Amino acid sequence: MFTFSDAVLLVRKIAVGVLLTLVPFALIAGGIWLALQLFH
Questions:
Q1: Whole-model pTM?
Q2: Above 90 in pLDDT, residue 27?
Q3: β strands within 1-40, DSSP E
Q4: What is the rounded CA–CA span in Å between residue 38 and residue 32?
Q5: Which of 4, 7, 27, 32 has the fewest Cβ atoms within 10 Å of its own Cβ atom?
Q6: How confident is the model at residue 28 (pLDDT cuts 50, 70, 90)?
Q7: What is the DSSP letter of 7?
Q8: How does the average pLDDT of the chain come out, rounded?
Q9: CB half-sphere exposure, 37, CA atoms < 13 A
Q10: What is the pLDDT of residue 29?
């Protein structure tokens, strides 16, 4: 049986997975952008 609480848990797991994937990319991209801004 697939209940609403199961759906909420699934959505939370997906959201956490997406955040853990995107945050490092955002930090790397932000670091590269800052470095380029400073060197110009």
A1: 0.56
A2: yes
A3: none
A4: 10
A5: 4
A6: very high
A7: H
A8: 94
A9: 6
A10: 96
Cα(40)–Cα(12) distance, rounded to whole angstroms? 41
From CA 14, how far away is CA 2, in angstroms rounded? Answer: 17
Separation between Cα atoms, residue 33 and residue 24, nearest integer Å = 14
Kindly tell me the burial class for residue 24, based on how many C-beta atoms sit within 10 Å of its own C-beta (0-12, 13-18, 19 or more).
exposed
* Residue 9 in tokens: 């848990």
Instruction: Give the model confidence (pLDDT) of 30-40 as tens digits.
Output: 999 999 999 98
Both structure tokens of 31 = 């670091």
Q: Give the tokens for residue 29.
A: 């991209």
Q: What is the DSSP string of 2-33?
A: --HHHHHHHHHHHHHHHHHHHHHHHHHHHHHH
